[in-house]
Amino acid sequence: MSINKKSYDYGAAKSSIREIAAYGAARKAEVGAENVYDFSLGNPSIPAPDAVRASIARSLELPPTQLHSYTPAAGLPAAREAVAASLNRRFGTSYGPGDLYLTCGAAASLSICFHALANAGDEVIVIAPYFPEYRVWIETAGAACIEVMADANTFQIDNAAVAAAITPKTKAVVINSPNNPVGSVYSEENLKALADVLREREEALGTNIYLIADEPYREITYGDVVPWVPAIYDRTIVCYSYSKSLSLPGERIGWVLVPPTNPEHDMLVLAIAGAGRKLGFVCAPAIFQRVIADCVDEPSDVEAYARNRVALTEGLGKLGYEYIEPQGAFYLWVKALEPDANAFFEKCKALDLLPVPSDSFGCPGWVRIGYCVSYETIVNSMPAWAKLKAQYE
Ligand code: PLP
Questions:
Q1: Which one, of 376, 333, 327, 375, lies nearest residue 355 by Cα?
Q2: What is the pLDDT of residues 280-335, one digit of tens each?
Q3: DSSP readout, 37-90?
Q4: 353-354 and 170-176 as β-strands: parallel, antiparallel, unpaired?
Q5: What is the whole-number distance in angstroms between the Cα of residue 61 and the centre of ligand 1?
Q6: Probe residue for ligand 1, chosen from 218, 241, 245, 252 as the CB with the greatest number of ligand atoms within 8 Å
Q7: Number of other residues whose CB lies within 10 A of the CB of residue 69
Q8: Structural domain spans, the chain
């Protein structure tokens, strides 16, 4: 093959989530949208706040050359200043614009981190079940993706398992809380125990281990507090995106934060900028840099997700399904009614129920139901879930 084999393979092996969504769209055209219960995608169903539209309108008043011009590679100083000030208000920190690199969403933030940190042959630990693209981005940066299962009952981090997986090649551990696909929020106690493990292993092995906190769902919670990870572990890098919190997934805007607690802070900031340069991930969309400067403190509207969460958990609970109570994000992790989640998914599909089988997330035996859909979709899907359950009785 004269073209890049790995790139070809990634292109040819489509994301199973997107394949299910494409099937759902085709099926809706065939039998009517109201008859298909597509729970596959994590596309927010809540509109972006009005303040976003107002900010875009203000941007359009700028002279076109200014409106559409390049910004610095790391982003407009005013936008980074606004993000830093917002974080400082919320977490009592003293971050500055130089600690932030604006990106095209969390996908770019994470890719940049892996390229900034990993040398060929390094290892990056992910907590399974995990967002499937992590593996693609880690491998593309030349590192190996090492899966460590979360605690089988609580889906908190299994710190003994993390300790056992760390080797002299371990460069970073990626955590995602609130979690996609489980909806769990890691407790302060769980994160402190992880930090202890990382420090102990660093000391024993004479290496540096970074903690990458992927937090696109930070604001989407149902009562739990999401601990601020850099306050718990010094070598933390935070990846963030406005895709979920402000319902802007198509606009591609987020950031990487290198907190000054990192002992190698200045070198790390340059490596993040260098990785951005290497990947061509420079100058995030300028209009949306201005939007976040204006909207950084806009609250996330989680009311509709909270209502969906109650309808779904109560509905499935009454039918006898087993699930993990979601503390955040907009996914419900439901035990498949047979050991093979793919076989279970085929039975769901036959009833036009479209969750995502858990094997896609590196974990057997479950399905993920995305409840960022309309309330009606959830309520109207209940007879099909009942029919499905009856098939196993
Ligand atoms: N990380 C997690 C856990 C996600 O669920 C997603 C998107 O669904 C991303 C990263 C990528 O987000 P973005 O749209 O900001 O690139």
A1: 333
A2: 999 999 999 999 999 999 988 899 999 999 999 999 999 999 999 999 999 999 99
A3: EE-------SPPPHHHHHHHHHHTTS-HHHHTS---TT--HHHHHHHHHHHHHH
A4: unpaired
A5: 31
A6: 241
A7: 11
A8: 5-49+301-390, 69-295
Check if the beta carbon of residue 315 is closer than 8 Å to that of residue 283: no
- Answer yes or no: is the C-beta of 371 below 6 A from any ligand 1 atom: no
- 320 C-alpha to ligand 1 centroid (Å): 31
Handedness of CA 127, 133, 135, 141 (dihedral sign): negative
Taking the domain 69-295, which CATH number applies? 3.40.640.10
Label residues 326-359 b or e (16+ Cβ within 10 Å = b).
Answer: bbbbbbbbbebbeeebeebbebbeebbbbbbbbb
**Ligand 1 proximity of 214 Cβ (cutoff 6 Å):** yes
CATH of domain 5-49+301-390: 3.90.1150.10
- The CA 387 to ligand 1 mean position distance, Å, reads 33
Strands 170-176 and 123-128: parallel
215 in ligand 1 pocket by Cβ < 6 Å? Answer: no
Residue 259 phi, psi dihedral angles, 5° rounding:
-65, 145
Q: Is 280 left (phi over 0), alpha (psi -120 to 50) or beta?
A: left
From the CB of 300, is ligand 1 less than 6 Å away? Answer: no
> pTM score, two decimals?
0.97
Torsions phi, psi of 76, nearest 5? -60, 130
| pLDDT tens digits, 10-35 | 989 878 899 999 999 999 999 999 99
CB-count burial class (<10 Å; 0-12, 13-18, 19+) for 30:
exposed
- Comparing CA positions, the residue from 213, 216, 254 lying closest to residue 232 is 213
